[in-house]
Automatic annotation (TrEMBL):
Pfam family, one: Aldedh
EC numbers, comma separated: 1.2.1.27
Gene3D superfamilies (alphabetical): Aldehyde Dehydrogenase, Chain A, domain 1 (3.40.605.10), Aldehyde Dehydrogenase, Chain A, domain 2 (3.40.309.10)
Domain of life of the native organism: Bacteria
Keyword Secreted: no
PANTHER family: MALONATE-SEMIALDEHYDE DEHYDROGENASE (PTHR43866), METHYLMALONATE-SEMIALDEHYDE DEHYDROGENASE [ACYLATING], MITOCHONDRIAL (PTHR43866:SF3)
Gene Ontology molecular-function annotations: methylmalonate-semialdehyde dehydrogenase (acylating, NAD) activity
Protein name, per record: methylmalonate-semialdehyde dehydrogenase (CoA acylating)
Aldehyde dehydrogenase domain: residues covered: 16-480
Species of provenance: Paraburkholderia madseniana
Family under the similarity heading: Belongs to the aldehyde dehydrogenase family.
Gene Ontology biological process terms in this record: L-valine catabolic process; thymine catabolic process
Keywords recorded for this protein, A-Z: NAD, Oxidoreductase
Length: 501
């Protein structure tokens, strides 16, 4: 007997409404294949209604005092804290990551919400008196209008919270399109945002796939789009939206490397690598899928394999789980296929995670920690972003060679070095051509007062998705040059030069 499942609503003009679409997608628990909900693929009219609501709300919201905007996000962060356990449970059910990692997902988004509460200090302009005789020049950081965000499945709490709080705090209105694979925790966060006091129309949500994404890219009333996801979709979004005159930022695929020098603290380094490579089942754009062992560090492979073997693979709700399931059956099959390609390409399979069996969760999308050594460029497991718990190991003789090797990879999201040498670390941070660098830190995602600075093929657009850069992304800098005359001032006659004397 079939039991009904809830339908995920849209949010349009302050109201949670049921879509009129005829096209729906199931939200599936990746550990059990249970259907948790169904999500609509919104119609073009529904996307248009969401944008229209945002456009109508913008004139009054942009005039709302900055302190009023800030107080909403101060309240919002408290509501998120109070509902942390419930949010994490929902996230784990629909995405698969462990409860602890789910709380981390929410918490890293919460940090951005807290940052949005400081918008009064973040949105300051510049001023100079008497740049010429009686002339002042100052800048205004003014909101753009309707902005939109397109978010991925792997961080359904954190990445939406990267986007709409800062955009709205800056005085814009927003249309959010969450991942259709796991939208439920995002909608809980949206409900809390409305409870915190975000006015109707200021935040809107539509669900969907390619057609909705294209609708957002094409809509003339959307001024800016923030995207996080795959390189294929991100490149499409960037070019389509840019051609339509929009401001666009796209954070995309990655292939992050870590260098391990033989002087590194072995225990700390091996723990860090195992956690960064296999945590969240490798489904992080800042995961660590490639390790470059320098010199004598090549002898650490057996101990790294032992660390990986000790990780527990199970459903995210089970105590002690380290590695949960992949998001979907398709993702599972793709990762298995890439492991098999790695074997066929001649890499050495040090640890095989293909045949993991989890009692009670036989239908889950599980792949265990997998390690390859003797990996080379040209192999599929090196060239492609696997987005699974698969670690590739290469061996290089010295630091210079390792830096040159990493710089040859087109991606530039993050990188790390493990060493106890300050000189080696300084050389690495100076010579490596990657946007985000960790020194004995495997996943160097900065806290929100700093900007997320992925680079090269991992990013399209000049400005990052949070930190100082995102305030510039969500505002237009207007420069004002002003001169005020005293009624009694003598005029100097007509001046036909460019001078402001």
């Amino acid at each position: 007997m079939l039991t009904s499942v809830p339908s995920v609503p849209l949010l349009i003009d302050g109201c949670f409404v049921q879509s009129k679409t005829e096209h729906w997608r199931d939200v599936v628990n990746p550990a059990t294949q249970d259907v948790l909900a169904r999500v609509p693929l919104a119609t073009p009219n529904e996307v248009a209604a969401a944008v229209a609501a945002a456009k109508a709300a913008f004139p009054s919201w942009r005039k709302t005092p900055i302190s009023t905007r800030a107080r909403i996000f101060l309240k919002y962060q408290q509501l998120i804290r109070e509902n942390m356990a419930s949010l994490a449970a929902t996230l784990t059910a629909e995405q698969g990551k462990t409860l602890a990692d789910a709380e981390g997902d929410v918490f890293r988004g919460l940090e951005v919400v807290e940052h949005a509460g400081s918008i009064g200090n973040l949105q300051l302009g510049e001023m100079a008196n008497n740049v010429a005789s009686g002339v002042d020049t100052y800048t205004l950081l003014q909101p753009l209008g309707v902005c939109a965000g397109i978010t991925p499945f792997n961080f359904p709490a954190m990445i939406p919270l990267w986007m709409f709080p800062m955009a709205i705090a800056c005085g814009n209105t927003f249309v959010l399109k969450p991942s259709e694979q796991d939208p439920m925790v995002t909608m809980k966060l949206v409900e809390l945002a409305i409870e915190a006091g975000i006015p109707k129309g200021v935040l809107n949500v539509v669900h969907g796939a390619a057609e909705v994404v294209d609708g957002i890219c094409d809509h003339p009333d959307i001024k800016a789009i923030s995207f996080v996801g795959s390189s294929k979709v991100g490149t499409h979004v960037y070019h389509r939206a840019s051609q339509n005159g929009k401001r666009v930022q796209c954070m995309m695929g990655a292939k992050n490397h870590a260098i391990v020098l033989p002087d590194a603290n072995k225990e700390q380094t091996l723990n860090a690598i195992a956690g960064a490579a296999f945590g969240a089942a490798g489904q992080r754009c800042m995961a660590l899928p490639v390790v470059v062992l320098v010199g004598e560090a090549r002898h650490w492979i057996p101990e790294l394999v032992s660390k990986a073997k000790g990780l527990k693979v199970s459903a995210g709700i089970e105590d002690g789980t380290d590695v949960g399931p992949l998001i979907s059956c398709a993702a599972h099959d793709r990762v298995i296929g890439l492991i098999e390609r790695g074997i066929a390409d001649g890499a050495t399979l040090e640890l095989d995670g293909r045949n993991v069996k989890v009692p009670g969760y036989e239908k889950g999308n599980f792949v265990g920690p997998t390690i390859f050594s003797s990996v080379k460029p040209g192999m599929a497991i090196y060239d492609q972003e696997i987005f699974g718990p698969v670690l590739s190991i290469l061996e290089i003789e010295d630091l210079n060679g390792a830096i040159e090797f990493i710089n040859a990879n087109p991606n530039g999201n993050g990188t790390a070095i493990f060493t106890q040498s300050g000189a080696a670390a300084r050389k690495f941070q100076d010579d490596i051509d990657i946007g985000q660098v960790g020194i004995n830190v495997p996943i160097p995602v900065p806290v929100p007062m700093f900007s997320f600075t992925g680079s090269r093929a991992s990013k399209l657009g000049d400005l990052g998705p949070y930190g100082k850069q995102v305030v510039l992304f969500y505002t237009q800098t207007k420069t004002v040059t002003a001169r005020w005359f005293d009624d009694q001032s003598a005029t100097q006659g007509v001046n036909t030069t460019i001078s402001l004397k």
